[in-house]
């Protein structure tokens, strides 16, 4: 018996056994449509191989041809199953495929062509030959090549959508990419079978499918499911073992967190400690991670990978929820601001209103104009409070359109609005920095700081404006009496003032403008004992 004959029998026997033996394992795939597709691939591929075995082993030409046609029908079904599986695995629901009747009709039409080949013989013809071993030789017709071309187009689409998903999954998918490549290798044997003389001109794909099945289901099963569980391939995904050691990452993760490039084999806690803490504690709140100088917020979620009841690994995903989190924080700030406003209205406005009511009642009883003067002063005080309150509300709103501004120019323009002939302003030479800001709001910030310095430091106070080291911000300091360290935070709160006639809103407005730009403000002592306000987190524009 020819060794080539035995080799052909062995290839298809092994392929059939491997595919049939893999079906129980495939039934453990968690995703319904993916499981259906994979089981269909294994079943149709095994029937395909069995049909070819019948072509080699059955005794008469008629039953050989019938078995070969059975194998061809199973092969066509396997092509459809492969597309179904690929679509399901990559999140494209195959049950929602367009024109389902056309697809089913096309399949049945091709089946009819194959079944009726003994009549029209346009698909293939047969003759008995003795080389390379005695067998019923197949001579493929025009319909064979047309249907083969259609099948390869479908297979090509399936391979593309699988490889696209694996590519985005990064290094974690390399073994699966290799397995898909092995599945396509038998195409070379098909071509050699057509052009050569030692292999028959039939499809050898069942063996490639068998290798893919065994490799995926028994060697890389956890990784196979992990890549699918990662969901959106643009989401940073980290693959962990059961001890929370980093085993792999996708491209999105290494792009967003470069430290993961050197983190393979290390504990997640050592590389991304905040993500590890959120994952192990099950904290539903997003974590904050600085990315390129800007804060980003991520929701951390984990999916366990199990074999039976044993957890063998985990998939950790970090979903960017920065926009939602920033919106939520803005709402919280607005609610806090509303509460503060309600407190101010109920407390600070009530005092002058009570004074006005008292003196108005006294004026009605005595008719003295002096009481009415005091009523007028109380009303002026209320108007002043209301104007500052409205200014505070406006400063806390989102900033308007930003532009590139020269800091020194804004400072000089604002100084012209300050009515104090004796106070002096010194602008450091290094203040020549440009920045992205809402020019009007920035002007309000400096005007309030200048007025605060004059109000507390006297009309002859000296004010200095300069940049912080590295041009990451700027400062305003004065030569006034300064602010006690215990009050450094309090002075930024609405309504807090040490001046008798102050409303306590000026510095609160400054803080709101700073935070609306995404900057930070710090109160400290000046070099000459006065107050110093440092605004940091400002991006300098070169």
UniProtKB/TrEMBL annotation:
It holds the Pfam family HisKA_7TM. It catalyses: ATP + protein L-histidine = ADP + protein N-phospho-L-histidine. The keyword Zinc does not apply. SUPFAM superfamilies: ATPase domain of HSP90 chaperone/DNA topoisomerase II/histidine kinase (SSF55874), Homodimeric domain of signal transducing histidine kinase (SSF47384), PYP-like sensor domain (PAS domain) (SSF55785). Its EC number is 2.7.13.3. The chain crosses the membrane at residues 6-26, 38-57, 69-90, 102-122, 142-163, 175-195, 201-221. InterPro entries: HATPase_C_sf, HATPase_dom, His_kinase_dom, HisK_dim/P_dom, HisK_dim/P_sf, HisKA_7TM, PAS-like_dom_sf, Sensor_HK_Regulatory. The keyword Nucleus does not apply. One of its GO terms (molecular function) is phosphorelay sensor kinase activity. CDD domains: HisKA (cd00082). Keywords: Kinase, Membrane, Phosphoprotein, Transferase, Transmembrane, Transmembrane helix, Two-component regulatory system. Residues 344-536 form the Histidine kinase domain. PANTHER family: HISTIDINE KINASE 1, TWO-COMPONENT HISTIDINE KINASE. This is histidine kinase. The lineage of its organism: Archaea, Methanobacteriati, Methanobacteriota, Stenosarchaea group, Halobacteria.
């Amino acid at each position: 018996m020819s060794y080539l004959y035995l080799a052909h029998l062995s290839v298809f026997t092994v392929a059939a056994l491997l595919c049939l033996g893999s079906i129980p394992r495939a039934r453990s795939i968690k995703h319904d449509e993916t499981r259906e597709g994979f089981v269909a691939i294994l079943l149709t591929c095994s029937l395909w191989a069995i049909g070819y075995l019948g072509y080699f082993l059955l005794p008469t030409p008629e039953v050989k041809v019938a078995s070969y046609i059975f194998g061809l029908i199973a092969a066509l079904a396997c092509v459809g199953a492969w597309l179904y599986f690929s679509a399901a695995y990559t999140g494209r629901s195959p049950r929602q495929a367009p024109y389902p009747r056309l697809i089913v009709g096309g399949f049945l039409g091709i089946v009819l062509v194959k079944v009726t080949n003994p009549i029209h013989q346009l698909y293939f013809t047969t003759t008995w030959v003795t080389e390379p071993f005695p067998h019923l030789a197949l001579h493929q017709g025009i319909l064979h090549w047309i249907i083969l071309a259609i099948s390869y187009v479908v297979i090509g689409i399936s391979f593309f959508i699988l490889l696209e998903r694996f590519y985005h999954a990064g290094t974690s998918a390399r073994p699966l990419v290799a397995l898909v490549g092995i599945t396509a290798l038998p195409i070379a044997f098909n071509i050699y079978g057509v052009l050569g003389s030692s292999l028959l001109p039939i499809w050898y794909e069942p063996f490639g499918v068998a290798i893919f099945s065994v490799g995926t289901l028994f060697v890389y099963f956890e990784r196979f499911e992990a890549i699918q569980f990662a969901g959106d391939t643009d989401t940073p995904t980290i693959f962990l073992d059961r001890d929370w050691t980093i085993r792999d990452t996708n491209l999105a993760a290494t792009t967003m967190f470069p430290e993961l490039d050197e983190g393979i084999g290390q504990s997640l806690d050592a590389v991304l400690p905040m993500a590890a803490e959120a994952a192990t504690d099950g904290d539903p709140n997003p974590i904050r991670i600085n990315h390129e100088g800007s804060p980003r917020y991520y929701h951390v979620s984990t999916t366990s990978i199990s074999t039976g009841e044993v957890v063998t690994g985990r998939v950790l995903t970090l979903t960017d929820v920065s926009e939602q989190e920033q919106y939520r924080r803005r709402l919280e700030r607005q609610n806090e601001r509303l509460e503060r406003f309600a407190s101010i209205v109920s407390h600070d406005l009530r005092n002058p209103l009570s004074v006005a009511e008292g003196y108005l009642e006294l004026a009605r009883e005595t008719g003295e104009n002096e009481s009415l003067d005091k009523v007028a002063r109380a009303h002026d005080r209320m108007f002043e409070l209301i104007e500052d309150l409205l200014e505070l509300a406006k400063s806390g709103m989102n900033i308007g359109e930003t532009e590139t501004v020269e800091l020194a120019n804004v400072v000089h323009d604002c100084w012209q609005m300050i009515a104090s002939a004796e106070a002096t302003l010194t602008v450091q030479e290094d203040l020549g920095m440009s920045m992205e800001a809402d020019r009007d709001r920035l002007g309000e910030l400096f005007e309030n700081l200048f007025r605060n310095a004059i109000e507390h430091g006297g009309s002859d106070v000296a004010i200095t404006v300069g940049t912080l080291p590295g041009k990451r911000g700027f400062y305003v300091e004065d030569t006034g009496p300064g602010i006690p360290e215990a009050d450094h935070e309090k002075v930024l709160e609405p309504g807090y003032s040490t001046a008798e006639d102050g409303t306590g809103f000026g510095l609160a407005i400054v803080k709101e403008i700073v935070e609306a730009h995404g900057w930070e403000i710090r109160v400290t002592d000046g070099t000459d004992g006065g107050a110093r306000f440092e605004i940091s987190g400002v991006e300098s524009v070169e």
